[in-house]
Amino acid sequence: RVKMSAEEILVRAVELGKDFCLYFDELECDALCQSRTLHRVLRNVNSQLLVVRPDLNVAAFENVTDQEVQTGKGMHFNIHCYKTTTPLAGLPVAFSVQVEDKSYYMCCERECGEMIIRFKEGEVPKEIPGESNIIFFQKTFTSCCSKAFKFEYSMERGMFLAFEEKGYLRKLILKKLSEDEVDETMKM
């Protein structure tokens, strides 16, 4: 059983019929509407921070000094939270980051049959009318670890943000996992 508040479901009555039944206008699925923005750094299980380097087209978890954190180039994220009518999927969020004087948003694209994380120049929209390749569902990492999260890609169930070691890099990727599996590479 799911409890819902009036804030989560908006309906508009059109008329009260002669049979005392309430009739509703044809309703469409609500768009995702941005409700608030959080400012955070994203840290993995190795206490490394996610750093975006658009010039190299890469986002990776790196060891960062306190001085580098203060300058914050490419590591201070805006997590844009959206309202939704399907709260069971998790909190819909989009990510953006400032590098130099430019804003970049995170999205997913299919390339050679594989899902790739990209950071494109631009702003995240205030409203999203339907599905979007920028939306992730924020979920608690485990029931006993409420301060850590995992992020599931909204357009492909079971695909989560994670890191993968490639040489000296711990690159941000999408990783396929079942909902009940625990994988420390997804913990943020």
Question: Would you give an account of this structure?
Answer:
This protein has 188 residues and is mainly beta. Strand 1 and strand 2 form a beta hairpin. The strands form three sheets. Strands 3, 6, 7, 8, 9, 10, 11 and 12 form an eight-stranded antiparallel sheet that branches. Strands 4-5-14-13 form a four-stranded antiparallel sheet, with no helix packed on it. Helices cover 3% and strands 50% of the residues. The chain starts with 12 loop residues before the first strand and ends in a 12-residue tail after the last strand. The model is unreliable at 1-11 and 24-28 (pLDDT under 50). The protein has one helix spanning 66-71, and strands spanning 13-16, 22-24, 32-40, 49-53, 58-62, 77-83, 91-99, 102-111, 114-121, 127-128, 136-142, 145-153, 159-166, 169-176. The protein has a single domain (32-186), classed as Trefoil (Acidic Fibroblast Growth Factor, subunit A) (Trefoil), CATH 2.80.10. The relative contact order is 0.16.
